[in-house]
Write a structure and sequence with these properties.
The chain is α+β, with helices and mostly antiparallel strands and 183 residues long. The chain has helices spanning 3-15, 26-34, 53-57, 111-129, and strands at 37-40, 45-48, 62-66, 69-79, 83-92, 103-110, 134-136, 143-149, 152-160, 164-172. The chain contains four helices and ten strands; from the N terminus they run H-H-E-E-H-E-E-E-E-H-E-E-E-E. It is globular.
């Protein structure tokens, strides 16, 4: 096999993904996909984590510039075996547009409604992947749950900011958009 064949094979493997509906081993298909990107199951549209924010600007999505950040709005999408979420991705103003898009998130709501939705999604994820790798549910309303698969994670977080807010984030563990937080 020549060097060009090897390069082409690696690129093809990097972006191959399982389509929805998934074959028998749903959890394995989901994890394999998540290691490479996110699949919107309603239309089998796969967006690799290697896509840059500039590339995302070319997707058919709403882009909302808000002071210190830009919000990429994907709308309501089915992910993770039928879970419907209103998905966004946020890029800090200081982050270069050529940085890889590496995560998506969804606000699940606040107070009782948000907690109910977070628990519903937790149950869905436990059925798919088993118990989270990390949990912190010591306080009645606060929660921090994380399923980690090598370089990717799914986290559900409940936190207090004027009200209890609940979010889910799906993406790379080392999101380059948040690199400044590690300095």
């Amino acid at each position: 096999m020549g060097i060009l064949d090897k390069l082409f094979k690696n690129r093809t493997e990097e972006f191959s993904f399982s389509r929805f509906p998934y074959p028998e081993n749903v959890s394995k298909c989901l994890v394999d996909n998540l290691k490479k990107g996110i699949l919107f199951e309603g239309n089998n549209h796969f967006i690799p984590w290697t896509k840059t924010y500039t590339d995302l600007s070319n997707e058919n999505i709403e882009i909302d510039k808000q002071g210190d950040r830009t919000i990429f709005k994907f709308g309501i999408q089915k992910v993770l075996n039928g879970l419907e979420l209103n998905l966004t991705s946020m890029k800090w103003l200081d982050t270069k547009s050529k940085v890889s898009f590496a995560s998506i998130e969804s606000n699940l709501g606040q107070d009782e409604q948000g907690r109910t939705e977070a628990i519903r999604i937790k149950d869905h994820l436990v059925n798919l992947f088993g118990e989270p790798n990390e949990t912190n549910e010591e306080e009645e309303w606060e929660m921090s749950l994380c399923w980690r698969f090598d370089n990717v994670e799914i986290s559900i977080v409940g936190w207090s900011h004027f009200a209890m807010k609940y979010d889910i984030k799906i993406g790379l563990v080392n999101d380059p958009n948040w690199a400044f937080m590690k300095k």
